[in-house]
Amino acid sequence: MIELKNVSKTYNGAKKVVENISLAIPDGEIIGFLGPNGAGKTTTIKMITGILECDEGTISINGYDINKNSIEAKKQFGFVPDNPNLFLRLKGIEYLNFMADIYGVSTEQRLNRIEEMSRRFDMANALGDQIQSYSHGMRQKIMVMGALVHEPPVWILDEPLTGLDPKSAYVLKEMMKEHTANNKTVFFSTHVLDVAEKVCDRVAIINKGKILFTGKLDEMRNHFKSDESLEKIFLEMTENE
Ligand SMILES: Nc1ncnc2c1ncn2[C@@H]1O[C@H](COP(=O)(O)OP(=O)(O)OP(=O)(O)O)[C@@H](O)[C@H]1O
After folding, report:
1. CA angle 190, 191, 193 (to 5 degrees)
2. Tens of pLDDT along 194-209?
3. What is the ipTM of this complex?
């Protein structure tokens, strides 16, 4: 469970790019964070994960405040950033062991977990190579594997499906479903409506830093039909596919 209460953020004291957001992201459902480019998705995710501090409001993850009890809060989640070009000089396996070390995963647990994820993502033969030799999709997959190696209850993923080949996207979607079937949390951002429609149980729609809608997808469609400004955003997100 992730809870945001009255969260706001400005960069350099300028206009608020996130304005008074309140959101409850429950367990047991895949929640899509949907909005056009520049809407404030990444900024919000950076505040949830403690990379940025919010100017106002509070954020908690499974009850731990990300700013007041940050270590406990950070143990609760795995985070996949939108840019997978990180730790490029490490070999895949070195990166996974590094992440497992940070989160105190035992040797036996990490072996099982790495074996399972590399089989599902078809990465077993690449783990001995440096990440800089990987394709974009492979870099994304190793980031996902690193984020999930400690089996966090809460998954936070920023545009995780962009650039993944169809098979890997399918695998990740299946993993998200399995995770929420175990009553855990999956929160991921996308600017592509089609992705949200294929994966999410519920969506939260953000535009210009404000939450415009939260609810189920069929409710969203009805909402779009009856609201001109939402319809415009809907079109923008469809065009971005
Ligand atoms: N470091 C920064 N300094 C100043 N403004 C920023 C900074 N980072 C983001 N912004 C601005 O904040 C707004 C929200 O950006 P953000 O990256 O959160 O949007 P987003 O919804 O994730 O977009 P995208 O889908 O393009 O990634 C944008 O107007 C962006 O230009």
Report:
1. 90
2. 888 888 989 999 999 9
3. 0.95
Give CA angle at 183 (179, 189), nearest 5°. 55
CB of 9 sitting under 6 A from ligand 1: no
The two tokens of residue 207 are 């535009």
Nearest-CA residue for atom 1 of ligand 1 = 11
Task: Name the token pair of 200.
Answer: 């999410």
pTM equals: 0.91
Residue type, 174: E
Determine whether the shortest distance from the Cβ of 40 to ligand 1 is under 6 A.
Answer: yes
Pocket test for ligand 1, best of 34, 41, 49 (most atoms within 8 A of CB): 41
Decide: 42 in ligand 1 pocket, CB within 6 A: yes
Q: How would you write 131-155 as a 3-class SS string? A: HHHCCHHHHHHHHHHHHHCCCCCEE
How many CB atoms lie under 10 A from the CB of residue 195? 22
